[in-house]
Amino acid sequence: MPNREPQRSDAQANRTRILEVARDMLTEDGDASLNSIAKKAGVGAGTLYRHFPNREALVLAVYRHEVQRLVDWATELLAEDPPLVAMRKWFERLAGYIRIKRGLGDALTAANHDAITNETYGPVIKTIAMFLHAGEQDHTIRPGLNPDDVLLMMGAVWRTPAGQEGENQASRLLDLILEAFRA
After folding, report:
1. Are the CB atoms for 46 and 27 separated by under 8 Å?
2. Which helix H or strand E contains 152, and what residues bound it?
3. From CA 172, how far away is CA 174, in angstroms rounded?
4. What per-residue confidence (pLDDT) applies to 163?
5. How far is residue 180's CA from residue 153's CA, in Å, rounded to a whole number?
6. What is the pLDDT of residue 108?
7. Distance (Å, rounded) from C-alpha 88 to C-alpha 124?
8. Facing residues of 141 across strands?
């Protein structure tokens, strides 16, 4: 991996703004052009291409950025809420990220789709393990749950159809799954 000098604060701000705008625009329309993303982010096309040389690089960066934000959020959630409540909030957001990934998946080659899935799997599993451990410690989550099994079960939550009916179904499924975790 090449050594990179730290980015200037304005360059980092541009990168972050591009990622946020790209996330929103590509989630709404997977065919949104890079030029339209740059324009809405308030940067020139050259700035976007300096950070992300092609569409696939941008899509991968959006997904990495969102997963990192999700992983980082877990500690904050556990400081504010009991483990089961924190885990519910976290899985609701993870389901949203999976929908983003699904929406962006068409922009990725099969190899990069697999690579980003493999790259983000470990941090997600570690975070689930952290929730489970916290729940075991306060005796609200039954001991011995496997984080891989939990993630597989949660897959049902983001496989619900789009729209309000699908969101209602996802909420019911999440309730059922989390109830099964209760000590």
Report:
1. no
2. helix 147-154
3. 5
4. 82
5. 11
6. 64
7. 14
8. 182
Residue 68's contacts (CB-CB under 8 Å, 6 or more residues apart) are 123
Nearest-CA neighbor of 181 among 77, 73, 44, 85?
A: 85
Cα 24 to Cα 37: distance, rounded to the nearest angstrom:
9
| Ordered structural domains, the chain, with CATH | 1-53 (1.10.10.60), 54-181 (1.10.357.10)
Nearest-angstrom CA–CA distance, 51 and 168: 38
Collapsed DSSP state (helix, strand, coil) of residue 163: coil
Residue 2 has a pLDDT of 44
Q: How many CB atoms lie within 10 A of CB 178?
A: 19
Please give the helix or strand (H or E) that residue 151 lies within, else none.
Answer: helix 147-154
SS3 52: coil
Instruction: Render each residue's pLDDT in the chain as its tens digit; 183 residues.
Output: 444 555 678 888 999 999 999 988 887 777 789 999 999 999 999 999 999 999 889 988 988 888 899 999 999 999 999 999 999 999 988 887 776 555 555 566 667 777 777 888 999 999 999 999 999 999 999 999 999 999 999 988 888 887 889 889 989 999 999 999 999
Residue pointed to by tokens 């922009």: 107
Say how far apart CA 38 and CA 43 lie, in whole Å.
Answer: 5
